[in-house]
Design goal:
Elements (H helix, E strand, L loop, with lengths): L1 H12 L4 E11 L7 E8 L6 E8 L6 E8 L5 E3 L9 E5 L3 E6 L2 H19 L4 E3 L3 H5 L26 H12 L3 H4 L1 H25 L1 H70 L3 H9 L5 H18 L15
Parallel strand pairs: 5-8
Antiparallel strand pairs: 1-2, 1-7, 2-3, 3-4, 5-6, 6-7
């Protein structure tokens, strides 16, 4: 099954930016046996799309082709048929009911466990699980080569990661250097475990050796934070000074406006006074003729008449808007 998963991931899902999480070999219930694979996949880009994909081996060659894909959000019910006894049959309720028979109960359980965890993670328990044991829904169920999603309800772990050419070459070299890699897998795993422990020890020693540099770095960071605090204090004081200068500038601007307004009013007042003086000034001769006029002689009468005319002109001067002189001031 591992080889099949590797081939499906490489040929079908990697080109579509999808990751294969679980697979089950099935055939349709009650019909002539034509095997296919149901695959649980997620997209590698966000937003994550979860799908159940039906894949079938081509009749014309040794390759697989994608037949149909259902969005997991469209799955309403998963019916495992029997929660107590082992039974390879199960139903998936999409727009219609699809009845399947798995090649083994273990593969079926692993696939249903994967669907349950994807439901917990992405659909917030939208799917109903019927005739499924509670233990299967509460625990991660590995089944030999067919691993489902592990890590509980919080995170879906990327189970499959395709090896690149460099990693495949390194594995081949490592297996060639160990005679028991193929004949005795346990001895090979034990050897890898010992080497891993040696590497872990080297990493710990390296971390301990770098502790001094870490302390120096922390000290520098503390000093930098102190400098930042001082800079913030200076900036605050500068801000207060700028605020004070701004207030003073506003006061000066207001004072300048008042001075300009006062000068303008003085100029207008002076202009009005000059106008009144020039147009309402009565000559001393006219004043004397009016006060001491001799109405018995023709010359005196003429002088009084001229003075009266001059006085009348002064009284009839048209004042500018805003100016008013009462009769008692004349």
């Amino acid at each position: 099954m591992t080889a099949i998963k590797h081939a499906l991931q490489r040929d079908i899902f990697t080109p579509n930016d999808e990751r294969l999480l679980s697979i089950v070999n099935v055939c349709k219930a009650g019909k002539k046996k034509k095997n296919c694979f149901l695959c649980a996949t997620v997209t590698t880009e966000r937003p994550v799309q979860v799908k159940v994909v039906k894949v079938k081996k081509s009749d014309k060659g040794d390759f697989y082709k994608r037949q149909i894909a259902w969005a997991l959000r469209d799955l309403a019910v998963v019916d495992a048929k029997d929660a107590v006894k082992e039974n390879p049959e199960f139903d998936l309720h999409f727009e219609k009911i699809y009845k399947w028979v798995a090649s083994s109960t273990a593969e079926k359980n692993a696939f249903i466990s994967c669907i349950w965890k994807l439901n917990q993670r992405y659909l917030r328990k939208k799917i109903d699980f019927v005739n499924v044991s509670s233990q299967l829904l509460e625990e991660s169920v590995p089944s030999g080569e067919n691993q489902s999603v592990t890590g509980g309800d919080e995170e879906v772990v990327d189970e499959y990661q395709e090896l690149n050419a460099r990693e495949e070459q390194d594995i081949e070299i490592m297996m060639e250097g160990c005679e028991c890699a193929i004949s005795n897998a346990e001895a090979f795993a034990e050897k890898l475990s010992r080497e891993l422990q040696v590497l872990d020890g080297a990493n710990i020693q390296s971390i301990m050796a770098s502790e001094k540099q870490v302390n120096i770095l922390m000290k520098l960071l503390d000093e930098a934070l102190k400098e930042v605090d001082q800079i913030e204090l200076k900036l605050s004081s500068y801000e207060e000074m700028l605020q004070s200068v701004k207030e003073q500038m506003n006061q000066i601007s207001e004072s300048n406006h008042l001075i300009h307004l006062s000068n303008t009013n003085n100029v207008k007042l002076l202009s009005e006074i000059e106008f009144l003086v020039n147009h309402m000034d009565l000559a001393k001769g006219h004043i004397k003729a009016l006060q001491e006029g001799d109405l018995a002689s023709s010359r005196g009468i003429e002088a009084c008449t001229n003075a009266a005319d001059a006085l009348l002109q002064c009284m009839n001067v048209a004042l500018r808007p805003g100016m008013f002189i009462g009769d008692d001031k004349m």
